[in-house]
Design a protein that fits this description.
elongated; alpha+beta; 5-stranded antiparallel beta sheet; minor pseudopilin epsh fold
Length: about 180
């Protein structure tokens, strides 16, 4: 090692000492052992990698599917609450005719109507997998006074998704406040 270090002070002499008959004098650090495993992946390793990747992909897809259903339920409940607030505002600005929402549990839809239901302003079908299970409004119809209070009283409706989760859209009797909650009123 002393010869090698002393030979490095002169770059040409060091190069001559490092190469002896075209071969390096440095140790090879197990190159022969590495040559045995330098053939790429073994079939078992490739199968194991594909298996682990498919398991991870399956878990991620199932998690996103569950979250997607929850998001669809929440978005549907927020849309219903928003439309209830819209009818509430329309009644505050009314020109003598009342506006109301008629809920149809059998068809999973609701209608925003003017007057006694002669004129349909908006028909909303709930997305697939979302069920309108129950309404606590008289004759499945929600109307408001001009001051925003529900007529004759408030109530709630229940939306469910396919996994059994429920959200409640609640209209307060005295104030007309509209909110979405996971707990029943």
């Amino acid at each position: 090692m002393a010869q090698l270090v002393s030979g490095l002070s002169n770059p040409q002499a060091g190069a001559e000492k490092l190469l002896v008959r075209g071969r390096s004098t440095l140790p090879r650090f197990g190159c022969r052992a590495m040559a045995q495993f330098d053939r790429g992946f073994v079939l078992f390793e490739a199968i194991l990698a594909v298996l682990l990747t498919s398991i991870m992909a399956g878990v991620l897809v199932s998690i996103s599917w569950v979250r997607g259903d929850g998001h669809r339920l929440s978005a549907s409940a927020q849309t219903v609450a928003q439309d209830i607030r819209l009818v509430q505002q329309m009644n505050a600005n009314q020109d003598g005719t009342g506006y109301s929402i008629i809920f149809d549990c059998s068809r999973e839809r609701y209608l925003i109507v003017k007057g006694l239901g002669v004129s349909i302003l908006k028909a909303v079908d709930l997305p697939g997998g979302i069920d309108l299970v129950y309404t606590g409004f008289e004759k499945n119809r929600l109307e408001f006074y001009t001051d925003g209070r529900p007529r004759p009283y408030g109530g709630h409706l229940v939306l469910c998704d396919q996994s059994g989760r429920s959200l409640y859209v609640i209209v307060q009797t005295m104030t007309g406040r509209v909110r979405v909650d996971a707990q029943p009123p």
